[in-house]
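Recap for those who missed Tuesday's class. We walked through two folding examples back to back. For each one, the amino acid string is listed first and its predicted structure tokens come directly after. Nothing is annotated here on purpose, so try labeling regions yourself before you check the end of the notes.
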Amino acid sequence: MSNSRSKNALLNIVFGYTAQIGILILSFVGRRIFLKFLSVDYLGINGLYSNILTVLSLAELGLDTAVLYSLYKPVADDDIPLINSLLKYFRKIYTVLALGIFAVGLALIPFLKFIVKSNLNGTELVIFYLLFLVNTVASYFVAHKVAFLSACQEQRIQKLVMLSSNLILQVLHIIVLLIWKNYYVYVSATVVTTIINNLILNAICNKIHPHLKDKTEPVSFEKGPIRNRIYSTFVYKIGGVAINNTDNILISMLVSTAAVGFYSNYYTLITAIQGFIAIISTSLISGIGNLGAGGDKKRQYEIFSMALLFYHFVAALGLVGFSLLFNDVITVWLGSKYLFDGKTVFIIAFNFYITNAVTPIWMYREANGLFEQVRYLMLIRAAINIVLSVVLGKICGTFGILLATAISLIATSLWYEPGILFKNIFKMSVLNYWKKQAKYFSATIIGLIIAYYSVRNIPNGIIMLLIRAVIVAVSVSLPFLAVSYKSTEFKMTTDFLKIRRK
């Protein structure tokens, strides 16, 4: 079972990375062509509407996590009648939510004029929004199948389908921009591709798991715990949306929609890197959940310690690399006219850092179903974030809005959630966690100082940019190696890699 979990996790990571690299290359090319033929206002609309519809999808929040957690044990037990009954139940819920989101989305149209600060035609803005709304709703009709594939640790199937559809979409986007230079057709291509993606994914899932089409006798199961789990994760993730998906809305309202377009360029790079990290996270969560269902707390903690070292190292690379190289990458990619100032770039990098440094905490919280204990925490964090975003946004613009995100995380989840995890899952003191995080934080600061003084006098240019990137990687790696090479988690990581190479 342990070998099966490791094999599935590795396969998911390999296929996921293949998909991510292909999509990344085409999206970079597509973004450059986009800005060549369409204005930055259209780019801002792209990011703004995506955020608005994520906020509209609040009703779904918690459902995906609750569905996945509810499927872990039936999948581990190969209880097909119960799996089929659960999936039918979840399909009904997703359908109702999709219709509800569509209705609420339509009701929001009269308020768009207060959110969008742009010179684009008002009628066009409404049509663009409707296309985005249809695209969002369409994704819900196979959501239960996606959750089932994740519970089976078969995310690679979804990744392969996503790769194919996204490759086609990116090519279509490029063709549309080159031939028609029309944003209507651009967004319509996205909607069509989403629908085709859903149909293909559904067909493949049914073929691989033919029991999903079987007319098995319904199995009764307790809906109360599932509803409570959905409610707890819903409350928690409302805060997450208010924090992570309102920045573009606030930037549009307090600064301009064009500023959203500027930020989306940086966010595209962040999302690309985060996509690679998320592939590892989602591939591991299912295995951790199955491990937790088996009651092996010792092995869970060992994997947690390895994950903590890995994610903090990645976070440090992001902080140092983005801080020192971000504007150079944007200049080479899109041109110097799309740059933010140094302090705004640093706060974008810092938000990446603190988010990823604590990623193992939320991974283990979700895998072990710790929803109820933290359900109100994110609401508190969201309230702090929104108030500070408005205040600091009026004073400091985009920098202030992004700074509020960092402050809200440090003031709440950063220090509170680790204690909940260690008390309920590991049954040990949280002090060891903070000692490790302090050690990794010190290594990060040392790496930042070394990298800054090493690259500051190196001139710009593509070749020089690559040299600076190598220097940054070495500057961060050496301090982390120095503080961790004697640790148990470092030894376990190297042993694991040695085994996988054989």
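Example two. Treat it independently of the first, because the proteins are unrelated.
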Amino acid sequence: MNIVNDKLYRERVYAIVRQIPVGMVMTYGQLAIVLGDGYTARTVGYVMHGSDEGVPWQRVINSQGKCSTGRLTIPMNLQQELLEAEGVIFSEKGKCDLGKFQWFPEGFEPADDDQIRLFG
């Protein structure tokens, strides 16, 4: 069985993504860390590509603070536009400040600013 096609695997990803508040983001790698063994940034990205309706997929971005779907959506840059509408600010190079906009589920909050970079 392919793990990313497993319904329980996918639903665990979606359950956390549904908790991300409006105007906040998580990274693919951060989700993988929160979910634990068997999850990687790559598989989380694959699962998000086929997310169910009602899953705020736009709130999951890459570790650089950028959207990874720029050329995959119509219109182009839809993910960034959706996030900007929620109040997430991007630089001219398409990068948001993870120190300001990255959300952490309860129990996974960083102890200090250095830890934020570890989740990026």
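Answers for example two:
The CA atoms of residues 7 and 13 lie 10 Å apart.
The longest strand covers residues 26-27.
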